[in-house]
Model the fold of this input.
Amino acid sequence: MKLCIKNAASFVPAGALAEEAALTAAANELLENGQGLGNDFLGWVHLPSQTTDAFLDEVQACADRLRAKAEVIVVAGIGGSYLGARAVNEALDHTFGLNGNNPRIVYAGNNIGEDYLADLMELLEGKTFAIINISKSGTTTETALAFRLLKTMLEKQVGKAAAKELIVCVTDRVKGAARKLSEIEGYQTFVIPDNVGGRFSVLTPVGLLPIACAGHDIKALVRGAQDMEKATDSNVPYEQNLACQYAAMRNALYQYGKKIEIMANFNPRIHYFAEWWKQLYGESEGKNRKGIFPASVDLTTDLHSMGQWIQDGERTIFETVISIEKANKTVIFPHDEQNLDGLNFLAGKRVDEVNKMAELGTQLAHVDGGVPNIKISFEKIDEYNLGQFIYFFERACGISGYMLGVNPFNQPGVEAYKKNMFALLDKPGYEEDSKAIKARLAAR
Ligand code: PA5
Done:
């Protein structure tokens, strides 16, 4: 993995980056010594190096069991219990679903769309399907709602005894509805460690099981993360520590008015990585009325929609470009006798070469337009590189959050909508809130 910050450094006064860089060592050390805010959620810091092959074999065995039985595997989860698995799977899967003999992986429990669920149930009708129910709390409405629907459908389709073999829960060691239900029904379970928060949990069974189910190599993924854990350790000096350099640069830009970070990619397979990254940084840093707003664009697609704003809008943004050095497949652009589209100058070139020139041209244009540019490149999309990528962003997020002076490991803000929703739905226990919210709405 490579990080280039030279096209961002010129946007902050001389010395500003050095000031932020000087703060990174202490912030990184807090992740090691556990003396910072939210220190009961630091289990992810050494998770890769503590993950044994024996444990990965256990996850793989469960995945193989489900893969052997199911045409479709539904992964039910939301936020940190969903985005990491989807990010890795969508990066590695065939874009149009030609995944050989692998079961189709679909996602549920990440919204409350009735049409979405109805469509999903239509897809599952008459098919052998398995469910991986992922929820640390076991009480998240979106996930619990989808799981109840899917479990009911599965039991109707194959009977309770067979359904039991097709359901796996990934949840808390002892607490919550999913744990209790698993004990009653006898589902296989995996534990989400107490000290790993949702958005840092992709390298636990939360991510590993759905990724293994899709047929991807979880050992290579963890190996990539292990190598990045070493490379970003607090003993590694700033000059070699890419997580510290990224954290320093983005904080320096933030101090000088760049309030929005746009993750841009030039490979559609990276789309869900940006979704995962947005949650990681948004939930970790957006508190106490502070924090960079994480946004994302898929390029060149969005150059035809958001490109105008990025080039010419308010100068409060910077871009972090994820650059994949080599495409995994080859497509050569053909010559055409008529050349009506005028594209014969591209004949014989790989499409990736065109994409790379679009990437470079965009970088130059955006920097000229006043958009600082951070570039993160890796060689190609594979499990090892994705593992590096995941841990790099986790580590940099912890460092960056501590530099900002927030607790990067809680998310008190996400409760507000839930309280209102439960009050509006007359959930038992919310009677007072229910009266208050209804009075407020009536007074409008
Ligand atoms: O990062 C987080 O903690 C959240 O995004 C949670 O992962 C998300 O709300 C899902 O929670 P749970 O796993 O308890 O269902």
Q: What stands out?
A: The pocket of 5-phosphoarabinonic acid is lined by residues 78-81, 135-137, 140, 143, 197-199, 283, 411 (CB under 6 Å). Residues 383-404 form the longest helix (22 residues). DSSP finds 18 helices and ten strands in the chain.
